[in-house]
């Protein structure tokens, strides 16, 4: 009996260590000098060298690129949540097979890889003179992430009794007021979960801002960190320091919203 109990624990511990190892190595080597990192990559630092962080913050123009990333990320979180909730609310209230068909179309939208349309999208943005625009970047992210938000919201909204909305309508509550003041508070845990996921996907993304933002003053944090890599020689110590700094808000937000994430995703179980 004890073997059966401990075996899953040992397996989970093994995979947990395997998952955390790259992060541990990243943080360890961020506190080493460049030579020490090259010579002893797998060892603990002899002392905590903070010069990498000081130099990385100065050369990255850290607060400017963090501001750019924060603007794009927070804007994406807001736009994605509003659009996906309103679209999901509409789909959940369409009777018959039409609602299911629309739901299926948005679900299929999640499987379209960005790489398949990135060149065509680049041409269109160039022709429309919309490159180097962080606001455009927000709406691009909203278009790609919104499908998952709709997928998650619809399942939860279909589980809410219609009697709640009917009672609100009898009391004189209009559709928009009912949607935002009556139904939206009921999906709080789901909304927080989606906000965290939208934050992670946008904050960590490198490809889209690298493709569509070439102005050095508009670089996001991920693109700015990549600038430490060059053909003449990569400054890995500074790159690792920048990556370590970029993880701080992720860790803080995940810890703060951890209790909502599991309940938020399971609450949105699909009900067709």
Strand content: under 5%
Please, what is the average pLDDT? Answer: 85
Structural class computed from helices and strand pairing: mainly alpha
Proportion of residues in helical segments: over 70%
Would you list the SSEs in sequence order as H and E? HHHHHHHHHHHHH
- How many individual domains? 2
Poorly predicted residue ranges: none
Could you say what the CATH topology of the largest domain is called? MetI-like fold
In DSSP terms (H or I, runs of 4 or more residues), the helix count works out at 13
Task: Output the radius of gyration.
Answer: 23 Å
CATH superfamily of the largest domain: MetI-like
Shape estimate = globular
Report the major sheet: none
CATH architecture of the largest domain: Orthogonal Bundle
Number of β-strand runs: 0
Terminal CA distance: 40 Å
Using brief descriptors, characterize the structure shown.
0% strand; globular; mainly alpha
Secondary-structure map:
Blueprint: H1 2-30, H2 34-39, H3 51-60, H4 62-92, H5 97-108, H6 118-127, H7 134-157, H8 162-170, H9 175-183, H10 188-203, H11 207-212, H12 221-226, H13 236-267
Helix pairs in contact: 1-13, 3-4, 3-13, 4-5, 4-7, 4-10, 5-7, 7-10, 8-9, 10-13
Structure summarized in a few sentences:
The chain is an all-alpha fold. The chain has helices spanning about 1-30, 35-40, 50-60, 60-90, 95-110, 120-125, 135-155, 160-170, 175-185, 190-205, 205-210, 220-225, 235-265. The protein is about 75% helix and about 0% strand.
């Amino acid at each position: 009996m004890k073997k059966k109990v401990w075996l899953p624990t040992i397996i989970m511990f093994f995979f947990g260590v395997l998952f955390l190892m790259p992060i541990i190595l990243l943080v360890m080597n961020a506190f080493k000098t460049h030579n020490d990192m090259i010579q002893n990559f797998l060892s603990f630092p002899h002392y905590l060298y903070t010069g990498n962080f000081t130099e990385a913050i100065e050369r990255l123009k850290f607060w400017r690129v963090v501001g750019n990333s924060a603007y794009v990320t927070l804007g994406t979180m807001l736009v994605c949540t509003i659009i996906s909730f309103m679209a999901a609310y509409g789909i959940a209230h369409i009777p018959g097979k039409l609602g299911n068909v629309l739901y299926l179309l948005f679900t299929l939208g999640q499987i379209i890889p960005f790489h398949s349309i990135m060149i065509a999208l680049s041409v269109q943005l160039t022709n429309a003179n919309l490159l180097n625009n962080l606001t455009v970047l927000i709406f691009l992210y909203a278009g790609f992430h919104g499908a998952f938000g709709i997928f998650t919201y619809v399942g939860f909204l279909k589980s809410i009794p219609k009697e709640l909305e009917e009672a609100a309508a009898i009391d004189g509550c209009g559709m928009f007021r009912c949607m935002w003041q009556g139904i939206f508070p009921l999906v709080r845990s789901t909304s927080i979960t989606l906000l965290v996921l939208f934050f992670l996907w946008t904050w960590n993304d490198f490809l889209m801002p690298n493709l569509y933002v070439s102005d050095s003053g508009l670089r996001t944090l991920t693109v700015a960190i990549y600038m430490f890599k060059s053909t003449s020689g990569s400054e890995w110590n500074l790159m690792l320091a920048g990556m370590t700094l970029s993880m701080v808000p992720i860790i803080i937000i995940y810890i703060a919203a951890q209790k909502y994430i599991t309940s938020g995703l399971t609450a949105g179980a699909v009900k067709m």
